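Record 1 of the preview.
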Amino acid sequence: MKKTYWWRFVVVFIGAVVFLWGYFSVNEDKFDLCNYNEYCIFSYNAYVDPLMFLSLFTLAISFFLFFISDKIFIKWLKFAASWMGITALFVLLAPVYTGGWMSFGPTKESVSIWMGSLFVILSLIKITWDWKKDKNGRN
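->
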């Protein structure tokens, strides 16, 4: 069971960088990073929260990636890439705020939380399933 940890650290690193960028963007006034510069990379916009939540969910699942083989990791990485693409599409299509007199429905933030939660659950199921299948195939 070969394990190359390099790619696992890349997943953790990207998740951490995106989460920290989102954290500093949300708290930009507290850290006084932009000094009223309109082109600052830490300017808050509608996509900061979804990116921050998705990176947080990715960091949550990344702990388990260190205990699986490369073959299972590659399968998970393909699943994660396709899931993030679908999530990005849903977040792009969702409105920033709900409006109107009924004021309900999905927003960018709620879509990213639901998709991120499903991502963690389905990732754990996929990792467990593939691990059991790989383990049974060896015996």
